[in-house]
Amino acid sequence: VDRAYLRSARGALKIARTLVALATLICFLASRAHEAYAALAGMETVITVLFLLLYLLRLDARMRCLFWPLADIFNSVIAALFLLVVCLFAIIIRTNKGTLAGGVLGLILLVLCLADAALLCKKISLDKARGRSAPAK
């Protein structure tokens, strides 16, 4: 278990994303909003927890078949696009206060997704060179 990851900015951001996505899901479920709203919030919660566990258990270092930070960036950007559309609909339609609260929390989650993608892009660009292009020692 990588305890340093939990104390890092990336780890704290993943935890915050998970908690806000869970709160968004609870708001949408409690307000009996359209199923698409709850499905998006639920999927975002599950995917974020899986990425959190991947980095926490250092599975990204063991499973080298995929460049995990790039997959995480892709997930964050796609989630942000979906959240923008769905949460704006939830805020505009606002059938009740729960749907409105879920939409606002979803927009906060959108900002967290974009911040996570920016941190990951910074990490990728600042890491050392990999593979054959790495300088010889």
From TrEMBL:
Its cellular-component GO annotations read:
membrane
**Residues annotated as transmembrane:** 12-31, 37-57, 69-93, 99-121
Q: What is the lineage of its organism?
A: Eukaryota, Metazoa, Chordata, Craniata, Vertebrata
What is this protein's name? CKLF factor
Q: Does the keyword NAD apply?
A: no
Q: Which UniProt keywords apply?
A: Membrane, Transmembrane, Transmembrane helix
Where mainly found? membrane
Query: The MARVEL domain covers which part of the protein?
Result: 5-125
Q: Does the keyword Aminoacyl-tRNA synthetase apply?
A: no
Subcellular localization(s) per the UniProt record:
Membrane
Give the organism the record lists.
Answer: Mohoua ochrocephala
Q: In terms of domain of life, where is this protein from?
A: Eukaryota
Stated membrane topology is: Multi-pass membrane protein
